[in-house]
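Entry 14. Structure prediction run on the chain below.
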Amino acid sequence: MTTPPFDAGARGVSRAIGQRSLRDPNLHYPLFPALVTGCPQTSTAGIQFPLALDYDYDAVPRDFFDRDPFAGIWRWGELLPPLAPGLPMGEGGTPLVAAPRLADWAGFGGEVYIKDESRNPTGSHKDRLNLCTVSAAVLSDAPGVTVASSGNHGAAAAAYAARAGLPCVLFITEGTEPHLIRMVTAYGAAVVPLPRPLRRVLMRELVERAGYHPVSSITETHTGHPFGPEGYKTVAYELYRQLGGRMPAAVFVPTAYAELLYGVWLGFKDLQRVGAIGPLPQMIACEPAAGAPLRAALAAGKPVVTVDEAPTAAYSIVVGSNSYRGVLAVHESEGDALALTDEEIAAAQTTLGREGLWAEFSGAAGLAGLRQAVQAGMQFDGPVVCLMTSSGLKDQGLPTPELPPVAPTWDAVRRTLVDYYGLTV
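Output returned:
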């Protein structure tokens, strides 16, 4: 499919009018500058609360949710932050794959779909977020973009900064996989390896001293960029259209700081507010059991908690503290947060592969969460969607499957196919 050119005309003009506090929705701020350090009036030294955007919903076209979800989330621009012309790369419009055999595997008697975010330009869902955050940098006349990430977020930020003609400084953890370094240096990013606890601290120095625009969190507790989750709303818009004008009953989301979880939930709330469409789905956070701070925060009834992290192959989504956004999304949607073992995620990754879907280990957590939920007795009255957030090509450093030695003769090949793979030849 050819991606239509960016249209800054009547369609695609942002109706965003300001920022508001998530801790106290009655507190409002101008649209710019983006308040990346959280709500000034409700945050304290011990905890900072994120912001979201407000829109002039009355100005949104009446046919807004009648639009088909082709690649390029700018087509939903009225309910997105202002986007910099020329920056979109065809992000969004990703396939929704019907998966009846995965439903059987999970033990679910209804419809199961996989939303394949690996089809985005840099191979993950993070492109939707970074289109919005890097646009904010461009429209703020920032001298550059900076991010602390050793994975998908850093790759997407570097790509969109390159697209914008802005320098990007990427703070990575020492020992980051070589494939990520190759990817971001191809985009021209300056890469700074540091011990993990110092990445955010020194990135904030760059922000304060040189005016670089941060597209990842610089606060003690995670706030992130207020424009970022807005890009994820388009996942919800697309799901509604791809399901033939239906809402899913539940959406299972691989979760770290819950920007994706919260952003998709915002999109469903837009569907209800603008289109009177409902009922809204449950949002199910799928965290690695090696951390699972959102689950711990919900159990403790606190906005944010800190937990100890254990080693896990789901390194893309393991974090030591949750974001307040995730608490809101689960509470408002009457959802849940699940803690998944590496064994559960590995089984889901293998099963996705047998369906032709190659997910990053962390990106398979959504399907793993569905199976755990069904086994725990959770029920869903309607279609269920599992987000597959990134490509298996992003996985590095995981064990390589052992292959059988084969002599170069037909008899040896035949014996291998029969004995090792169980084929009939």
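Residues 1-10 have pLDDT under 50 and may be disordered.
Filed with the rest of this week's runs.
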